[in-house]
Design brief:
With 154 residues, this protein is mainly beta. It has a domain of 107 residues: Immunoglobulins (Immunoglobulin-like). Helix content is 15%, strand content 38%. The protein is built from 2 helices and 8 strands. It has a 4-stranded antiparallel β-sheet, with no helix packed on it. Strand 7 and strand 8 form a beta hairpin. The chain is elongated, with a radius of gyration of 27 Å.
Length: 154
C-alpha cells in the first residue's frame, strides 16, 4: 500500500512539474518574441599578467518586439563570475553581461558563459580566452662608474 501511494505521489509530482515547464518552442513560434543580438560572443584577453585586469563585458541588444529576460547566466568555472541585468531589456534597448576572470591562475584561459533567456534563441554560449603569464621582474640597469674619473665642475 505504501509503495502504491508513493508511486502515485511521484507520478502526480512529475506530471505537475512537467506541465509547469514553459514550452521551449513557445518563443520560437512567437514572431514578436525577444531576440538577443550580441556584438561579440568571444572575448580575447590576449596575454595578460598575473593579477591583471580580468574584467570584460559582452554587449547585447534586444532586437525583438517583446521584453527580453535573462533567466540564468552561468560560467563553466568558479574562476569566472558573470553579472547580468536582472530587469527586462525592452525592445530596441541594449545592455551588457559583465564578466570577471580570476587572473591569479597562470596559463591558458578558455571558459564558457551560458546565457539562457526568453529569446527565440533561448541559449547562447559566450566564450573568454587568452593567456596569463607572470609579470617580468623589474630591474634597474647598473650604472657603470669609472673610478679614475673626477666629477665635472661648472
Amino acid at each position: 500500500m505504501k509503495k502504491l501511494v508513493l508511486t502515485i505521489g511521484i507520478f502526480l509530482f512529475l506530471s505537475v512539474t512537467i506541465k509547469a515547464q514553459p514550452n521551449a518552442n513557445s518563443a520560437q513560434n512567437n514572431k514578436n518574441a525577444p531576440q538577443i543580438k550580441f556584438e561579440n560572443v568571444v572575448y580575447d584577453y590576449g596575454t595578460i599578467f598575473q593579477n591583471g585586469d580580468g574584467n570584460c563585458e559582452f554587449k547585447f541588444k534586444n532586437t525583438g518586439k517583446e521584453p527580453l529576460i535573462l533567466t540564468t547566466v552561468r560560467s563553466s568555472c568558479g574562476c569566472t563570475v558573470p553579472k547580468w541585468p536582472q530587469e527586462p531589456i525592452l525592445p530596441g534597448k541594449s545592455a551588457a553581461i559583465k564578466v570577471k576572470y580570476d587572473t591569479r591562475r597562470l596559463g591558458i584561459i578558455n571558459k564558457q558563459i551560458t546565457v539562457r533567456s526568453n529569446a527565440i534563441e533561448s541559449t547562447i554560449v559566450l566564450r573568454i580566452k587568452g593567456r596569463i603569464t607572470t609579470k617580468p621582474k623589474e630591474t634597474v640597469p647598473a650604472k657603470q662608474l669609472d673610478k679614475n674619473s673626477s666629477p665635472v665642475m661648472k
